[in-house]
């Protein structure tokens, strides 16, 4: 599975403004819910519930909030570069400015693990974060994430 299989150019945004983690997660949930044909409030509730278990801020200014839903048949993602970093309770204590929100199938197959691993691997690449942080347009950000 390639990242381009579940990251649509229309679900990528630059200069996203959010004052809080909760606001950001609700906004990104609404974006990806539309692509997945789900209700934004259902997606946001699931994402926020998962975040209560522990922060998905993986360090280096990056977060990968995610949830598994029975109504999702394949992975969907929203990618955001924030205008200003926000507190996210990340493992390294750094504020977050790059976020990839994932909706994953609840089925007992490998798709959810493959998608999550692909995103994590991509974000750990030495070239990826500088390209993402330097992106001026959504197309640039999408290319940095999927090339």
CATH architecture: 3-Layer(aba) Sandwich
The largest pleated sheet is described as: 6 strands, mixed
**Any idea how many domains?**
1
Structural class: alpha/beta
Q: Would you state the CATH class?
A: Alpha Beta
Distance between the termini: 13 Å
Tally of DSSP β-strands: 6
CATH superfamily: Mannitol-specific EII, Chain A
Unreliable segments of 5+ consecutive residues: none
- What CATH calls the topology is Mannitol-specific EII, Chain A
Estimated share of beta-strand residues: 25-35%
Order of helices and strands: EHHEEEEEHHH
Silhouette: globular
Mean pLDDT: 93
* Tally of individual helices: 5
List keywords for this structure.
single chain, Mannitol-specific EII, Chain A, 5 helices, 6 strands, 41% helix, 27% strand, globular
Q: Secondary-structure map with pairings?
A:
Layout lengths: L6 E10 L4 H16 L3 H14 L3 E3 L2 E2 L2 E4 L6 E11 L9 E10 L5 H14 L3 H7 L3 H9 L1
Describe this structure in words.
This protein is an alpha/beta fold and 147 residues long. The chain has a single domain (3-146), classed as Mannitol-specific EII, Chain A (3-Layer(aba) Sandwich), CATH 3.40.930. It is 41% helix and 27% strand. A hairpin with a 2-residue loop joins strand 2 (57-59) and strand 3. The longest helix is centred in the N-terminal third of the chain and has 16 residues, at 21-36. The model has no long low-confidence stretch (mean pLDDT 93).
């Amino acid at each position: 599975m390639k990242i381009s299989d579940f990251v649509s150019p229309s679900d990528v945004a630059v200069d996203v403004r959010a004052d809080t983690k909760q606001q950001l997660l609700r906004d990104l949930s609404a974006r990806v819910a539309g692509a997945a044909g789900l209700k934004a409030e259902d997606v946001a509730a699931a994402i926020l519930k998962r975040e209560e278990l522990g922060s998905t801020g993986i360090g280096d200014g990056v977060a990968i909030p995610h949830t598994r839903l029975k109504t999702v048949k394949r992975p969907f993602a929203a990618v955001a570069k924030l205008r200003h970093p926000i507190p996210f309770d990340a493992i390294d204590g750094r504020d977050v400015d790059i976020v990839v929100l994932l909706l994953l199938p609840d089925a007992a197959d490998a798709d959810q693990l493959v998608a999550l691993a692909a995103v994590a691997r991509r974000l750990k690449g030495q070239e990826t974060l500088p390209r993402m942080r330097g992106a001026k347009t959504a197309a640039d950000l999408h290319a940095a994430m999927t090339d």
